[in-house]
Amino acid sequence: MGAGASAGATRDPRRQRSGSGAAGWARRRAGATGQALERLFGGPARTRVILLFGAVLALNSADTATVGASATQLRQGLHISNADVGLLVAVTAVVVAIFSIPFGVLADRAHRIGVLSTTVALWGVVMLVSASVSSFDQLLLARVALGATTAASGPAVASLVGDLFPADERGKIYGYILAGELLGAGVGFVVTGDVASLSWRAAFVILALPTFVLAVALSRLPEPARGGASRLAPGARRVLGRREAQARRRAEGVRAGETLGRATPEDTGGGPTDAQELARQRGITADPRLVLRSDPRRMGLWRTVRYVLAVRTNLVIIASGACGYFFLTGVETFGVEFAKGQYHVAQIVANLLLLVVGGGAVLGVLVGGRLGDELVHRGRLSGRILVPAVAAIATTVLFIPALITHGIFTALPYLTVAGFALAAQNPPLDAARLDIMPPLLWGRAEGVRSFLRTGVQALAPLAFGGLSDLVGLRVTFGIMLVPFLGSGVILLRALRTYPTDVATAAASAAAGRNGLAPVGGAPGPAGPAR
Predict the structure, then answer these.
(1) Would you tell me how many other CB atoms lie within 10 Å of the CB of residue 9?
(2) From CA 199, how far away is CA 196, in angstroms rounded?
(3) Predicted TM-score of the model (pTM)
(4) Does domain 44-222+303-513 fall into CATH 3.30.2350.10?
(5) Where are the domains of the chain?
(6) What pLDDT shows up at residue 121?
(7) Average pLDDT, rounded, for the chain
(8) Buried-most residue among 8, 55, 76, 266 (CB within 10 A)?
(9) Residue 98, number of CB atoms within 10 A of its CB
(10) Which of 429, 505, 530, 510 lies closest to 276, judged by CA?
(11) DSSP labels, 447-512
């Protein structure tokens, strides 16, 4: 026994040293990865914000993708059809649309970090409930509750990105954040999708667990000041809270000799964006009918909706996004089913195929955002519109060969490049939306856009599912490419309206900064922008 104990004693230190070595290697790798991300994103504070916002969108897309990847198991377990699977996704989208505008109002008026962290925690609760249901009707009700909580993410993230990051790199920043959305879809397809092949309930549980950690991490972010006082320059080590940032801005203003009593940037939305400055240099005049002469925060809901939809470029972006997301939602919901039938592969291979396509999409959001920013830097004012217009048309062309062939290796290059082009549209468009809206309307403008876009998007699962039950998924995907092509054609019109709308948003923000606006009035003529 003594010898055995002695031998055990000699083995334990080796085992301990080995464990310490593995743990040390893991810590070193994690540290190296963190440093690489900080170099890429521009410092620890920016890295923290980008990763958290990306994780919020990732959870949302992972949920939609999980429903699609679990379609076979849901049909068998709950005895439902493809149309019923589509209904599960559609109901969530409808409820998101309904709640987007109220959450948009909160994003412009309330503590955004608090709203976001609370709703993320509620996601997790609802996902756990989804895993415990015993009937299709119960799952449908759970999806209604899920839509009500996920609606907060779009308006809150849009408003926070505008306040936290400089205008000249918002396309790039949106690319990083939207990469999280695509990675979440990949997790939904591959990780939880493979788990769903064993149990769709386990897939929902796995998806629920990270939400609580994310909610706690979000709650520790300070609420930034509106208008850019908390803006994170490259190298920033922490996010300045609202009060601290405003105190610093006031101190800087007094040192610079600013006139006290006038509206401050944190009250009115900060300075012009890069596109707005370029419009000013080129002498592009604002639309006098849309220059705000009142505090946007005091505008009623119906007046806000009318104003947001009166901005022509915004209306075009909403219509284009609705067409694009209509097709994308169908792909997320029925992509695995399509790949299994079209290329005659098992579910695990279909999941891996979509993961490869998702890799192309991640590269697309990273390149698309940077390219839109770069075109503006080089003087192409409408660069953030041109990139998505070309990408949408290219996506349609590239999907056609993949629908014709039955060979997975033949289709893979087309699908990967199509995924790249499809995803490249979103970051520059998201940055462009901030250029054409006064900053104090960012949350509500995103709420209106989400309401209309998601309302159309909600029809996609029903349309894909119902039509596929009649003519099959291959024909359905071909038919649904038509509205996607329309999204690119529609965007070409925005190339003409975007410069004027950029100048108009700059004029509205400048009117507020110069103290021209009495609080509480309606939008009205203000004359040509200077």
Answers:
(1) 9
(2) 5
(3) 0.77
(4) no
(5) 44-222+303-513
(6) 94
(7) 81
(8) 55
(9) 16
(10) 505
(11) HHHHHHHHHHHTHHHHHHHHHHHHH-HHHHHHHHHHHHHHHHHHHHHHHHHHHHHHHHHHHHHHHH
